[in-house]
Amino acid sequence: xxxxxxxxxxxxxxxxxxxxxxxxxxxxxxxxxxxxxxxxxxxxxxxxxxxxxxxxxxxxxxxxxxxxxxxxxxxxxxxxxxxxxxxxxxxxxxxxxxxxxxxxxxxxxxxxxxxxxxxxxxxxxxxxxxxxxxxxxxxxxxxxxxxxxxxxxxxxxxxxxxxxxxxxxxxxxxxxxxxxxxxxxxxxxxxxxxxxxxxxxxxxxxxxxxxxxxxxxxxxxxxxxxxxxxxxxxxxxxxxxxxxxxxxxxxxxxxxxxxxxxxxxxxxxxxxxxxxxxxxxxxxxxxxxxxxxxxxxxxxxxxxxxxxxxxxxxxxxxxxxxxxxxxxxxxxxxxxxxxxxxxxxxxxxxxxxxxxxxx
Length: 359
Ligand SMILES: Cc1cc2nc3c(=O)[nH]c(=O)nc-3n(C[C@H](O)[C@H](O)[C@H](O)COP(=O)(O)OP(=O)(O)OC[C@H]3O[C@@H](n4cnc5c(N)ncnc54)[C@H](O)[C@@H]3O)c2cc1C
Ligand code: SF4
Ligand code: SF4
Ligand code: SF4
Hints:
The strands form four sheets. An eight-stranded mixed beta sheet has the order 7-6-8-9-13-14-5-15, sandwiched between helices. A three-stranded antiparallel beta sheet has the order 10-11-12, with no helix packed on it. A two-stranded antiparallel sheet has the order 1-2. Strand 6 and strand 7 form a beta hairpin. Helix content is 30%, strand content 20%. By secondary structure, it is α+β, with helices and mostly antiparallel strands. The protein has two domains: 16-222 and 274-358, no CATH class; 226-264, Nuclear Transport Factor 2, Chain: A, CATH 3.10.450. It contains 13 helices and 15 strands. One iron/sulfur cluster (SF4) is lined by residues 19, 23-24, 29-35, 48, 73-76, 195. One iron/sulfur cluster (SF4) binds at residues 30, 189-191, 219, 221-222, 274, 276-277, 280, 282.
């Protein structure tokens, strides 16, 4: 046996194994795609999988850190939210809503899920050179969705509307950078925005020319497509894949298909909710430059929370925003309802272990 003095000074990385054991195998993965964004060893199948030996077995130990970069950027692993707020946001701390510069509601001319604000922000940011591409969720087969790097107004308009399924948005950041893009906008749910910030912090901090604008969507929960599809057929007699529009409003899941609308209570779909969503306490995308949702504003409008100078600049570039009243209490009520739903018994993901919110 070697004396202790001969052990390597650099601790060997756990590689992909840590992510697999603590997140993926436990059903905590949100399918954001961050772990696969820069690492060619990881491929996104039903869950992220290692396709060949993680190179950390042999080299790159320092570069990938003790747990592996894939672990560090995952939105469900330990996260220092305060540090990320300080690094990316700039406004007053609101105990309920996170960092806020401005809370408003209204609508834009673009057709969208609610007030069309996200689509208008993307169109305006692209037109005014605030970014040269955006990562958005395009409708795939059925009501599935896939992440795409869009560079034209047509693609942005085509991808408007909410897809209530997990889309690995963050996987596209690496691809966009490899393609030579430097100013990127990304739209995502709160977990995807958190992953984006962790990825920026872990990998892109020193690369000043890479500029990311993060547009967050409010999110109460998300669904497993196959389970949801089965449940919708069972409850409403509709093939989800043939739907024209899906919306969640006032506690109801509404599907428009063949010009007709049918709905059921969202609570009736609980069995199709992704497991990871039962361990999530972020309703308003607290780490986004600008967050957008429907709760807190009248039908056909969007609630907007601006959280950084970048968010301000993007919002101010809008030419057709029409303001309406915003209901702050409604947002807070929904955010606390989401926190109350968190499963506290049994094993919880690392992000919640240290969270004061669980105490
Ligand atoms: C899974 C999910 C759950 C949500 N739950 C709530 C909720 O409980 N309460 C609430 O107030 N709001 C919720 N939202 C947000 C809401 O549905 C609207 O997206 C938001 O109000 C913006 O409306 P808009 O008209 O400005 O968007 P639009 O102008 O229609 O633009 C929407 C943009 O979102 C992108 N997008 C669509 N689906 C996804 C996805 N799955 N992942 C990443 N990007 C996507 C599209 O590419 C498009 O660019 C949820 C969104 C998602 C994706
Ligand atoms: S990110 Fe690093 S630790 Fe993770 S699989 Fe890739 S090489 Fe291995
Ligand atoms: S980084 Fe995203 S895709 Fe990868 S394990 Fe974590 S949640 Fe899943
Ligand atoms: S509820 Fe949380 S974990 Fe689930 S999709 Fe929304 S932000 Fe992600």
